[in-house]
Write a structure and sequence with these properties.
It is built from two helices and nine strands. By secondary structure, the chain is an alpha+beta fold. Strands 5, 6, 7, 8 and 9 form a five-stranded mixed β-sheet that branches. Strands 1-4-3-2 form a four-stranded mixed β-sheet, with helices on one face.
């Protein structure tokens, strides 16, 4: 089980805006902020999550990398649809519209977007096979 994951971003304000919009439909928000001063000059960071638990971190201080893939659990297919719509409106690029992906597993419903730094971000609902 993974406790948390972090991605380096090139522009923290832009990434904040994107992720707050894209992950809001999944119930994910900023729960912790760490300033550049707090890290002793090693970047500023935002911890996103729920219920006070920051499980997804974005931050500066290192060069942003691309090609990472992160999938977030959605409570239902409507939340996947809302994630996709919000992410696209926030500047994401389409990498797979919402829909069933039975080739992954029965009941797999997901959407994929590319974030402003080129990472593949997914929302997935593991529902009943249709």
């Amino acid at each position: 089980m993974i406790d948390h994951i972090g991605l380096a971003v090139s522009d923290l304000d832009r990434a904040r805006d994107f992720y707050l919009a894209a992950l809001g439909p999944l119930g994910i928000a900023v729960v912790m902020e760490v300033t550049e001063e707090m890290t002793g000059g090693h970047g500023a960071h935002l911890g996103l999550g729920r219920d006070g638990n920051p499980f997804f971190w974005i931050g500066t201080g290192k060069p942003a990398t691309t090609g990472c893939h992160v999938a977030f659990v959605a409570v239902d297919s409507a939340a996947v649809d809302a994630f996709y719509k919000a992410a696209m409106a926030a500047g994401g690029r389409d990498n797979g519209a919402p829909g069933p992906r039975p080739e992954y597993s029965p009941g797999y419903y997901a959407a994929f977007v590319i974030d402003p730094d080129g990472n593949n971000i997914e929302a997935v609902h593991h529902g009943a096979a249709s």
